[in-house]
Amino acid sequence: MTLRNVYPWIKHAQQHSYAVGAFNANTLEQMQAIVLAAQAEQAPVMIQVSHRALLYVGHGNTARGLQYMGAMGKIAAQSVAVPVALHLDHADETDVLQAMALGFTSVMFDGDGLSFEQNIAITKKLCEAAHDMGVCMEAEIGEVPKPDGAAYDPAEIALTRPEDAVAFVTATGIDTLAIALGSVHGLTAKTVALDLDRLKTIRAQVDVPLVLHGSSGVTDHDIAAGIKLGLCKVNVATQLNTAFTGAVRRVLDEDTALVDPRKYLGPGRDAQIDAVRERIRFTGSSGKAAVIGA
Question: Which of 79, 131, 235, 257 is paired with 150 by a 20 to 30 Å CA distance?
């Protein structure tokens, strides 16, 4: 299939209390794993590309990384018979515009570091461009930290204020809103609890679909509760990397003379297929490809 705009699926998820999985890909094998898992589960799926993935694939050049990932994403979508979207995550204005021109069907502008007013102004402009091109537009209010192994204080995380969410959605016209409920990027253990009362309040005041970032470190209990309360796009990255890398490490540990990368990357891909399938079932999107129209 061709790449699709994710917005109708996310609205369906919002109406029926499940979530669409957005899975990060850093390599060809990881991208293949995502669509193969979706095919096996007959689920709609989002291939998600981070800024760091662009730097890696583009050898330090995000524009080149976008070209690589855009081309691979199109081929990946064409290789399966389920709906696939290609999403650019946590991007600046330049990369958002280039991604849309290259065929990405979903984008997220990250206004971290900007004033609230600047964030609104740029997001509104990009949202208008996205809608003209049939692209789903996401933005974020609040803070989901990226500690990179450093210590962080959960009490100092800037959680999304409901009044800010209302003002931001009203002013920008965005399709989906990422909110900060206490999750953190890059955690390998599921220890974080979400502020579910805050989620209830935000959900009662804004009607746009809500997005959870940093789900790999959140307890499954709270992710499930959050989906019931209105989270309908769940981002997964570190949990997949853990499965992929674990399989590669086992193969290399078992055969220290191995030099053919296909013989360890293949098992890594297989392990990620299993991890994505599990998350698809967990978020409730398994079998939904037929419901939303493949």
Answer: 235
pTM above 0.70, yes or no: yes
- Please check whether residue 2 lies inside any domain of the structure: no
Handedness of CA 63, 46, 275, 33 (dihedral sign): negative
User: Of the listed 89, 95, 175, 195, which one is catalytic?
Assistant: 89
* Residue 31 host element (H or E): helix 28-41
Residues with Cβ within 8 Å of 133's Cβ and at least 6 positions away in sequence, in order, are: 100
Residue 291 inside a domain? The answer is: no
For the ranges 152-166, 246-260, 280-294, which has the lowest average pLDDT?
152-166
Classify residue 153: in a domain, yes or no: yes
* Structural domain for 29, as ranges: 7-283
Bridge-based pairing of strands 20-24 and 106-109 is unpaired
What is the count of structural domains for the chain? Answer: 1
The yes-or-no verdict on residue 294 having pLDDT over 60 is no
Residue 134 DSSP SS3: coil
pLDDT at position 150 is: 62
Number of H helices, E strands in the chain: 12, 8
Residue 289 lies in a domain: no
Confidence of residue 292 (pLDDT cuts 50, 70, 90): confident
CATH code of the domain covering residue 196: 3.20.20.70
Q: What is the pLDDT of residues 96-154, one digit of tens each?
A: 999 999 999 999 999 988 999 999 999 999 999 999 999 999 999 998 878 765 666 67
Task: Judge contact between 249 and 50, C-beta under 8 A.
Answer: no
Strands (E), the chain: 20-24, 45-49, 84-91, 106-109, 136-141, 176-179, 210-212, 231-236
